[in-house]
Design a protein that fits this description.
The chain is an alpha/beta fold and 654 residues long.
Length: 654
C-alpha cells in the first residue's frame, strides 16, 4: 500500500542512492560520415531499384529508369520562325506574286516557283521551293503582290531546318534524371507517351510516446501531453520528396504493441520504417530493444547535435528476404527528427529512386555567418540557418552567400527549422580553437533548399546568450506579457516547446533504476510569475541539464512560482509525489525580504546535503567573491534531490 511504500523509501540512505548509477549506452559513438557510410552500404546490397511504367502526365517528380531517345527529328519539317512571306529568291526585283497561304498545322501547300511567295504563320511548314522567310513588318502587300522593303534577305533566313532542335536518334533525357515540367515537355515533343521510372519508396511512419496526442484529438489532450508534430511533419516531408506514405501511426510506449506494429510491417511491402521517440535509455524506450530482438541494429549513437540517439537498422521482410526493411529510429524531439531525416533518410530515398549513390547527398557551400555562433563543447552541430545571396557588386556581378541563424537551437524548438534552407556545420569546441564562430567567418553549410535571393523578409530572432521567456515572447526586463499590454502585443519570437511549459506527463512513468534520470526546474520570482520580467535562468538550467549533464537525464517540466513559501512547497511536493528524481530551483536565495527559497525548502528536507552545498558555493566563489551573498542549499526529500541555485543565469550555469 501507499504507507508501506512510503516506509520503504524512508529507509533508503544517501549511500544507497549513490549506487544507482546512470545507464551507459553499449553502442559506439559514430560520426555522421561513418553513419552515412553504413546506411549507403546497406542500400547498395539491396540490388537494383524496382521500376514502373507510367503515363507521361503522371511522371512529374519521378526518376527516369531509362534513356529517352528521339525517334524522329524535331522539327520534322522546315518551319517558319516568323509571321511573314516565304519567298523563292530565284526571281528578279523585289516584288513577288502571292500564290498561297499556309497556317500552322496545315498540309498540302503548293511548291513555289521563282518570283513567287506564300503567306506563312509562325510554326507553319515552309513550302518546297522557298528560300527565305521575310517578316510582315518588312513587306508591303498590294492585293496579290508583296514588295520586300529590305535588301538584306539571305537564303535560309527565318527558317528552322529539319532536326535543327533535336536530330533524330538524340538521347534527350538520361536515365536517373528527375522528371520536372521541362522534362515532361521534352518527352511530349519526341512523342514519348509513357516512361519507365523507378518506383517510389513506400514508407511507414510511427510516432511513439505516452505524452503524444494526435492533432485530430484535441479534446483528449490532458495536462502533461503535447500534440504529435513529428508524424504529420514527416508525412509532408516524405511525400514532398517523392515517396509514398503507407501508414501514419501513433502508439503509446508499450513494448507489446510496438512489437506487433513491427511484425505487421514485416508482412507488408514497405521499404522504410521511420519511428520517432523510444531510442534513448529510459525504461519506456522500447524501439531500439525491439529492433535488436526482431532484426539488426547497425548503429545506435551518433556524434552530432541534435540527434545523438539516432538509430539505424534492419527488419527482415517476409515478402522480400533479399531486401530487408530499412528502419530509421529517430529521437523524439522534433528538431532532431527534422535534422536527422535530412541527413540520413533523404539520401536513402534518393538512392531507392535511382539516383546514383555518389549524388544522393546535399550540396555543400561556403557561407559567411551573420552572428556569433556558440559551439557545443563535445558534439559537432547542424545549426539551422537561412542561406541567401547578397550583391557585392552591380547586379551582374558575383553574389556572396551569407547565412543567418534561425535563432535558439534547442532540439525541442521546431521554430528553428521554419524557413531554414541550410544546415551550418559547426565543429565541437574540443575539435577547434575557441568556444564560438565569430560573426563574419566563412564556414560550410549543407544546402537543403533553394538559396534565397535577398535576406529573409522577417526579422530573424537572435541566437540568445540566454534563453527566452516561457510565454513565447521576446520582451525586455520589466516589459509586460501579451495579456498585460492593453492590446499592444510584444514582438513574437520562438515559443518554448510545450514539454517545457506544461505539466509533466501525469501518470507517465519517470525513468528510474539507473535507466536515466528525471528532472524539473523551478524558477522562484515574483516578477517573472506576474509576467513583468523575462525568465532567463530557468531555460539556462533546462538546456544545461538536457545537453551537458554528461549522463542520461530528461527535464520534464519548467515552472515559475512567486516568492511565496506555500507556492514553492506546493510545486516541489507535487514533483516529489510524481517521482521526480532531481529538482533544481533558481532564485530567492539572497537576503532581500522576499528571498524565501531556503526557508521554503529546508523544512521539507529529510536529509541536508552539506557537501553538495559547499561544492556549489565553491564553484560560484571561483567566479566571483560576491557569490558568498547567496544562500545556496541542497537536500533530499524522499527519493528526490533538490538543489537551490541563485537567480542569475550566469550563476546558474556556473
Amino acid at each position: 500500500g501507499t504507507s508501506g511504500r512510503y516506509r520503504v523509501r524512508q529507509r533508503i540512505s544517501i549511500s544507497d542512492l549513490a549506487m544507482v548509477a546512470p545507464a551507459k549506452s553499449s553502442y559506439p559513438m559514430l560520426s555522421v560520415a561513418e553513419g552515412l557510410q553504413h546506411v549507403m552500404e546497406a542500400v547498395k546490397k539491396r540490388g537494383p531499384a524496382t521500376t514502373d511504367t507510367v503515363a507521361i502526365q503522371s511522371a512529374f517528380g519521378r526518376t527516369l529508369a531509362e534513356d529517352v531517345t528521339a525517334p524522329f527529328p524535331h522539327p520534322a519539317f522546315p518551319a517558319s520562325i516568323v509571321d511573314g512571306y516565304a519567298l523563292h529568291l530565284g526571281g528578279s526585283g523585289s516584288a513577288y506574286s502571292v500564290v498561297s497561304e499556309s497556317f500552322a498545322g496545315a498540309e498540302g501547300i503548293v511548291t513555289l516557283k521563282p518570283g513567287e511567295a506564300s503567306y506563312i504563320t509562325t510554326g507553319a511548314k515552309v513550302p518546297d521551293g522557298a528560300s527565305a522567310m521575310v517578316p510582315v513588318e518588312q513587306c508591303n502587300v498590294d492585293k496579290q503582290t508583296v514588295t520586300i522593303l529590305t535588301c538584306d534577305v539571305s537564303a535560309g533566313q527565318n527558317i528552322r531546318p529539319v532536326g535543327s532542335d533535336i536530330p533524330q536518334g538524340t538521347v534527350v533525357l538520361n536515365k536517373g534524371l528527375k522528371m520536372g515540367s521541362a522534362e515532361i515537355g521534352v518527352c511530349c515533343t519526341v512523342g514519348k507517351a509513357s516512361v519507365l521510372v523507378y518506383r517510389p519508396p513506400r514508407i511507414a511512419i510511427l510516432s511513439t510516446g505516452n505524452e503524444v496526442v494526435s492533432i485530430g484529438n484535441q479534446a483528449s489532450l490532458r495536462s502533461g501531453q503535447i500534440f504529435d508534430s513529428n508524424g504529420p511533419m514527416l508525412k509532408a516531408q516524405v511525400e514532398g520528396d517523392g515517396a509514398v506514405v503507407t501508414e501514419l501511426t501513433h502508439l503509446n510506449d508499450d513494448k507489446g504493441v510496438i512489437g506487433e506494429y513491427f511484425r505487421k510491417q514485416q508482412e507488408s511491402d514497405v521499404d522504410i520504417i521511420i519511428t520517432t521517440g523510444g531510442v534513448s535509455m529510459g525504461r519506456s524506450d522500447y524501439v531500439k530493444p525491439l529492433l535488436e530482438e526482431m532484426g539488426q541494429v547497425i548503429f545506435g549513437r551518433l556524434n552530432l547535435k541534435p540527434g545523438k540517439p539516432t538509430t539505424y537498422g534492419h527488419l527482415p521482410s517476409k515478402g522480400r528476404p533479399e531486401s530487408p526493411i530499412q528502419v530509421f529510429a529517430l529521437p523524439g524531439n522534433p528538431v532532431s527528427v527534422w535534422v536527422t531525416y535530412h541527413l540520413f533518410v533523404v539520401p536513402v530515398m534518393r538512392a531507392m529512386q535511382g539516383v546514383d549513390v555518389g549524388a544522393v547527398g546535399w550540396p555543400c557551400v561556403d557561407v559567411e555567418v551573420q552572428q556569433d555562433l556558440q559551439l557545443d563543447k563535445e558534439r559537432p552541430e547542424y545549426h539551422r540557418c537561412v542561406v541567401y545571396a547578397e550583391d557585392t557588386a552591380p547586379s551582374w556581378g558575383r553574389r556572396k552567400l551569407k547565412a543567418i541563424s534561425t535563432g535558439h537551437q534547442i532540439s525541442s524548438r521546431l521554430l528553428s527549422s521554419v524557413g531554414a534552407n541550410g544546415l551550418l556545420q559547426l565543429p565541437a569546441q574540443k575539435d577547434t580553437k575557441g568556444s564560438k564562430i565569430p560573426r563574419g567567418s566563412t564556414i560550410s553549410a549543407l544546402l537543403i533548399g533553394a538559396i534565397a535571393s535577398v535576406p529573409p523578409p522577417m526579422e530573424v530572432p537572435p541566437v540568445p546568450s540566454g534563453p527566452v521567456c516561457k510565454c513565447g515572447m521576446v520582451h525586455e526586463e520589466g516589459t509586460p506579457h501579451a495579456h498585460q499590454t492593453n492590446g499592444t502585443k510584444p514582438k513574437p519570437t520562438a515559443a518554448v516547446h510545450p514539454s517545457l511549459v506544461h505539466a509533466a506527463s501525469a501518470g507517465a512513468p519517470m525513468p528510474k533504476d539507473g535507466a536515466g534520470y528525471s528532472a524539473a526546474v523551478l524558477v522562484c520570482s515574483d516578477r517573472c510569475s506576474r509576467g513583468e520580467a523575462e525568465d532567463r535562468s530557468g531555460p539556462v538550467a533546462v538546456e544545461y541539464l538536457s545537453e551537458h549533464a554528461g549522463f542520461p537525464l530528461t527535464v520534464h517540466e519548467l515552472a515559475i512560482v512567486p516568492d511565496e513559501i506555500d507556492a514553492i512547497r506546493t510545486q516541489v511536493n507535487k514533483w516529489v509525489s510524481e517521482g521526480m528524481q532531481l529538482i533544481v530551483t533558481s532564485g530567492g536565495t539572497g537576503f532581500a525580504p522576499r528571498d524565501r527559497t531556503p526557508e521554503a525548502l529546508e523544512p521539507l528536507f529529510d536529509r541536508r546535503c552539506h557537501g553538495l552545498t559547499h561544492q556549489m558555493m565553491d564553484a560560484s566563489l571561483q567566479a566571483t567573491p560576491t557569490a558568498g551573498l547567496s544562500r545556496l542549499t541542497a537536500g533530499i526529500i524522499k527519493l528526490t534531490l533538490v538543489l537551490a541555485l541563485p537567480g542569475s543565469p550566469k550563476a546558474v550555469s556556473e
